[in-house]
Amino acid sequence: MSAELPRLSRDVSPAATAPVRMVHLGLGAFHRSHQAWYTQHAGDAGEWGIAAFTGRRPDAAEVLAAQDGLFTVVERSDAGDSFETVGSIVEAVDGANVDRLVELLASSGTAVVTLTITEAAYAFGANDVPLLVSGEKPTTPLGRLVRGLAARRDADAGPLAIVSCDNLSDNGKVARKGVLDIAHPFDAGLAAWIEANVSFVSTSVDRITPRTTEADLALVAERCGYRDEAPVVTEPFHNWVLSGDFPAGRPRWEDAGAVFVDAIEPYENRKLWLLNGAHSILAYAGQLRGHTTVAEALADAVCRDAVEEFWEEASRHLSGEELRIPEYRAALLERFGNSRIAHHLAQIAMDASTKLRMRAIPVLRAERDAGRSGEGAARMIAVWVAFVAGNPGLQDPQSDAVAEASRLSGVERTAALVALLDTGLAGDPAVVELIQKLSAGFASVVPAKTGTAA
After folding, report:
1. Does domain 2-262 have CATH number 3.60.15.10?
2. What angle do CA 330, 331, 337 make, to 5 degrees?
């Protein structure tokens, strides 16, 4: 029946098309549920259209382009679903279309570039330096961004802000380093121009957005009366904290609840450790115990106890009443327990060596510096060590090194895996032995039959 319905477009759902003033790299579900949603709800949304470029594949751009950039946001809670058509993306582009990216970045009308390129992508941009030098098209998001910034300098189009929305500590600083590491060997003059004219804004972002299913597409068709091939399902909760300058202006995101602060680090750490850290524990411990979603894993006492223990450790290093840690933890339990948001553990489990370096290592180091064992943080690493033993093909930016380490056994294997996260801790026998013990101990509580909770 849904095939007979009209396809979502600006004819079906009339919406004014704002001029492109923002460029986004990494078009995916999270961008649509977060930055695009915030822009839709800014009081001056009519002035801020987004041109969004895909990452590895063109699929999302092709689907959205057929819908004039429109998509449906489904907010899902235990109380039910709500539906909203979002039209802030006015141009959806294949990321390989570097010419269009260059054209937009060379325009004085473009004021903001936002990034959701995944944590791992910041390490690979330097591979594009030879391509930039030879005049060929770069292949990585940061390489393409540098090519666009060169065109902006040449066009004398003025300053702009680059806003990283990836789960990295001090992500604006990481983005700045990644860009300049490419720009310096390519064109020292360009690097100097970037340092003088481009601001790098750090952010903390939060909105659980699981993969969309065929059932979700059917539900949108039934409830909205049109076919949408690119809806996103998300929770009602949303959070965006930003720190930095916007020299060419920005949307009024604060109208939608965004918060602008002088110091981002406390908010970053709260989110990286409490939310993302819990996700990593649940991803590996939960799958080992036969669960598939966050809600299922949280209902397992073994998994929940591991989360709570880690939270106790992490909370000791999160100071400031404005962070409202008790309330934040209570809200996380409610959000994680939302059984209608099928946040799949397999999705969270990817890119572990990058994620654990930011989620577990800082807390483990802080606890040991304070004279404590850091067992809660060590357990996060331990359940990953146990999980990769049976899942050698898990997507990871260091997948070859993970596979090589996994060929070892016992303490040697554990030490090799920990070294991928922190070489210093890997050289501490007490830390390695603790992680080895916790990994072996966790294996003893894994149920004989998948899906069995303690």
Report:
1. no
2. 95
